[in-house]
Amino acid sequence: MQLVLERRAERSAIIAITSPLIAIALTLVTMSVLFAILGKNPIAALNVYFVEPLTDSYSLQEIAVKATPLVMIAIGLSLCYLANVWNIGAEGQFLMGAVCGSWLAVVTNGTGAGSWVLPAMLILGALGGALYALIPAICKVRFGANEILTSLMLVYVADLFMDYLVRGPWRDPKGLNFPTTAEFDSVATVPTLIDGSRLHAGAVITCIVVMLAAVMLGRTIKGFEIRVVGAAPKAARFAGFNSKQLVLFTFAVSGALAGLAGIIEVAGPVGHLQPGISPGYGFTAIIVAFLGRLNPVGILIAGLFLALTFIGGEGAQISMKIPLDLTKVFQGILLFYVLACDSLILYRVRLVKLYRKAADGTA
Amino acid sequence: MPDASPATGSRQEPLLQAIDITKRYGSFAANDAVSIELFPAEIHALLGENGAGKSTLVKVMYGLVQPTSGELRWQGRKIELAGPSQARELGIGMVFQHFSLFENLTVAENVALGLAPTEPFAEISARLAEVSRLYGLPLEPDREVWRLSVGERQRIEIVRALMQNPKLLILDEPTAVLTPHEADQLFIVLHRLKSEGRALLYISHKLDEVKRLCDTATILRGGKKVATCDPRQETAASLARMMVGADIGEVKAASGRSTTVPRLVVTRLTLEPDDPHGIRLESISVEVKGGEILGIAGVAGNGQDELFSALSGERASPDAHNVIVDGEAVGHLSVTDRRRRGVAFVPEERLGHGTAPRMKLSENALLTGHAASGMVRHGFVDKPATLSTVDRTTKAFDVRKAKRDPEAVSLSGGNLQKFIVGREILREPSVLVVSQPTWGVDAGAAAVIRQALLDLSSRGSAVLVISQDLDELAEIADRIAVMFHGHLSEPIDAAVATREKLGLLMGGSSAGSPAGQNETSHAVGA
Predict the structure, then answer these.
(1) For A233, which residue in chain B has the nearest alpha carbon?
(2) CATH for B55
(3) Interface pTM, i.e. ipTM
(4) Could A10 and B352 be called an inter-chain contact, meaning their C-beta atoms sit closer than 8 Å?
(5) Do B227 and B311 share a structural domain?
């Protein structure tokens, strides 16, 4: 007997909706096995991971705080992926956005500058992310360089550049030699939504971004262009859409959103620039984008779910001594299953009797 | 060839029998209880429209597809084919319509790839030269495939099949890519193979060819066998009726078509190909007047694709004046800007070029309509407007589909082509450039499309039709030019464009040279 993938006559609408759920279920089963191997009770571990964070309001707010950058970045990435453009470097664009926005916070620190500082920082952050994302985009359009490699490699450049700044020129003189900038002034800080909570205005901006993306993809010619270029490049050329311009456009937009997420993170929950501001948001957002079916609303839900794994992972480390790295394992397994289940939309799995394998094709 | 045993007088014992072959894909039966018997020393035609199930049946016989039910018998014994290599071991060879050749390898290397790896390369080369000489299929073993014409490429496929010394040779629409002269040469080879006692299965939908060449014909329609008959005893009309299941309406030109001023003018267009195996366009000049249909004939791969993308604007021309529409130079403009000036285009490839296969028809209406049909306002898509284009096209061109707005890929070839042509014609373009308008389309849809092109031109538009189908051009074109190696001949009046004249041009002779040596004389069309 042999397992084969057989092409479906038309795409399965049921699988298209349920594929993320199947993937999550498979991930949970795999994780249970992993917990059991680690000598933990799987039921208890899953409870700590996925149920406990939903039971108190502090954790719920933290989920929203973590989901804010994830969703914002993933929205940008989904535009790239829909257009068949592979920006893997959102993490670097996130860091560059954080650096560019922080520059203003650092130079105005303690000068008593007005309330224009924060908006200007957000613009600088978005601009920084966009310009940084345009490097791999231009390399692709101009020289045919593979954007997957260039965008990924630039992540490490951005990481080390930020490291240099906070250890060198931007280091807080009163910071006891810790690699960090001074705490941002209040005019350079994203306001919180509820007093005493970490939930901040960035969550609102993310919701607006989700809505704008949904309108753009569903109703505008630009959204149509993105989808056609990704789905049928030759038809897109026939339609008069310029795929090179679209590479630049999608990279710039996704870079801007990643950069915006970066500066909001720094000027919001963190409050200063330091290494380790991102637990890999730019990479986790790739999973969010696919788990959310590259659909803005789906991404919002997927972002909240992935944020839950961050919070649950922290809880599991504290109460059950499960290593925090298991969260990354979880996210990796999830992406694997999501992509695997997606192939079931266009293909069905069949068991067939094994024939002697014909050694050749049609030639 | 040594061991093709001449099997004269064995008319009673079929070489290959297919009995009640059924192949289902889901609920769709591509073949429904089809039976066929192939005899040695006989050319058997398999006739049918696109989608009638010819390819499926042949793939079953060649071991590429496992039938859902039914059986195959080889010389009376029941067989089960696990794959093409087993079919070849039995003595079944096949020449596909779409070649599977590696362009960057030589002829001999390509042939060696399909043979057993035990045979030394030098021996294969020598055998190749011998077989090609023996059958009058000249080939240079050391030439790279990309240098060869389509006809020569097909020779490789035939020689490759013959080197395995098949008892049964299956040919899938072999003349689709040949000039009339090349087709005649192929027929000589096929007669020779028949006289050696081999069985041939000849797939085609060209009735005159089948009448000329074949001893028996099996006709398929909608996956079922309609009849097995002697094509020489039938008329072309009676064969067509069996294939289509109804009489086909004749296409009529509107009376009093007037040709007026040139609306599409191409002047000295020279364009380097953007892919290394593409064809360079060599100083192409041509004019299409309003109210006129100009046909461009030629064997595929002589620069037609390159010409289409230069006319559509998918590739810009070096000089704006290379392409002129209604007096305005548009050679430098994009597809969108040319559409805004009233030009419409229908590419050869329906799925993936003319439409995005997995998108809905309304979105595919937007694909070309966004430029100039009021479907987009301030960057926003007017969905009702795109849907109404689908509805109007459906009504005007009788597009049959399962629901109001299905994905393009779910339509049959003919219905999708009617949608694509209709989508452009409903915009009333001043110039229409269309490539292979009825390629692979059923006869009913083809008639609708040709009529629509005639009607459009009679309303004053200039229509340029690129087609490999000489009968089609004879039916609708006023003048016909021929493309060869990136050159375009002077157009000749369709009334005096005989098959011989066009055939010579398609083979690269200049228009004035004397007619070919041993060609029979028959005019194009009815």
Answers:
(1) B352
(2) 3.40.50.300
(3) 0.83
(4) no
(5) no
